[in-house]
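Researcher: I'm preparing a figure for a lab meeting and need a structural model of a single chain. I don't have an experimental structure, so a prediction will have to do for now. The sequence is pasted below. Please return the structure as C-alpha cells so I can convert it later.
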Amino acid sequence: MERKQEVSKAVIQRLPRYYRNICELKAEGVQRISSRALAERMGLTASQIRQDFNCFGGFGQQGYGYNVSPLCGEIEKILGIQKRHPCILVGAGNLGKAIAGHMPFEQLGFSLIGVFDNAKRVIGGKISGNEILDYATVEEFYQEHHPVMAILCVPREYVEGVSDELYSLGIHSFWNFSHYDITMKHPDAIVENVHMNDSLMTLSYKLALAEAGDSGQAAG
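Model: Understood. Here is the structure written out cell by cell.
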C-alpha cells in the first residue's frame, strides 16, 4: 500500500499495536471488523484508526470495514517484519541474556546471528543457540556476516566506544538499552532507545495520579 504522506512518529508507534490486535483477531477466526469495533478493542476512536490507516492509502471500505487477514499482511509489510534483518547483540549480562533468550526475533523482523561480550567468564557459553563470542572479534564477524543492526546492552560508560566502532564498521541501526544518545555523534543512525527507568517512572506517575483522585473522592 502506498504511503500518502509523511507518517508521524505517533502513527508509527501505534502500528505494532495494530499489528498485534489484528493478528489476534485473525487467530480468533475473525474475518472482518469495523473501525468502530477495532477502536473499542484498542481504546482508540474509529476516526483515529481511519486517519492512521489513510497514511498508508487506507485498507477498508466505507460501510464494510476491514478484511482481517489481508490487513494483517499489509501491516506486516509496512513494518518490514518479513525481511528478517540480521542483527547482533553486544553485552551478554543479565539483560542481554534475557533479551537474547526470550525475544521472538524471527517473528518481529530480525534474525539474531551473533552475541558478543568481553568478559572471559561468559565467552564460549550459549544463549538461545548462539555462542557468546569475544567482542574483540566483532570486526571479523561483521566482514563475514554483515549484520545491519546491533542491540546494545552494555554499561553506559562503554556504549559510546562500542557504538562508534560498530558505526565505523557499517552498522548504523541500534536497539539501545544504554542511557546514551547515539544520534548526538551519528545523526543519520537509526536508533530505538529503550529506557525502562522512564517507563517505570511513568507508571509511578499514573499510580500517584490515581491515588490522588481516590483521595479527592474520599475527601468529598
